[in-house]
Amino acid sequence: MQGILPQAGSPLAFHFMAALLYAALSVYFWRRHWVTGTQTAHDGTGRALLLLVLLVHAASVFGPMFSGNTLRIGVGDAISAILWLTVLIYGLGSLVYRLEALQALIMPVAAAAVLLPVLLPAARAIPNTEMLAFKLHLVMSMLAYSLFTIASLHVLLMAMLEKRLHRGTLPAGLNRLPPLLTMETLLFRIIWAGFLMLTLTLASGVMFSEELFGRAARLNHKTLFGFVSWFVFAALLAGRHWRGWRGRIAVRWTLAGFLLLILAYLGSKFVLEVLLGRV
To answer: What is the DSSP string of 144-178?
Structure first.
């Protein structure tokens, strides 16, 4: 039982409070943007609730993670932190673009992610976390995962929108989205930003491997999947620039790159921590 409980000092109530708030926000955004199709210049209630849930979620994941003098990150903590960043980035993006309808799709995922640190075993303390290089490496990797999570959700929504357009019927939520070409432009901006963060993450991991992890860089499944994912996204961006790739090609390459990225880090941590009981 001890292995599945949150680590010592974890504000357990925050996990469940955040999950309930995400569920409530999911219903709110769904009814507002998908059922009734309400559209106003400012959704003060939605933004206030979003800010509240982000604060509660931050307390649930970052409080235990940074408690004491060391950093502790298990696979559940990593996924929860990535989804927190995803919700934050998409919330900020919604201030510029009309993308509120997508928040109804993100909230259930975040509600599940915020409970993972409670259900999955916590990792041991990570060494060298006081180093600036490690902190930058961690932030860049989290941003890369968050941006590619957004890109994957975004590309799925675009595929749904294109399919409904061919049928000639759109639900209220899709009808309130920006034009498909605008969404496609935004998608590749997100992929470019994620690709930059992934490039910096891989480069810093190779250059400062001994300082960060206590050993020289070596080729393992984590490194292999990370670089293959980088090549997939590089090929997608090159194909977009030189061949004008879009539509189903963009969907397939984006999802393939994201899956490889999941296998690179989260997949390996899940196998080690959850299935094998190792850190």
So the answer is: HHHHHHHHHHHHHHHHHHHHHHHHT---HHHHTSP
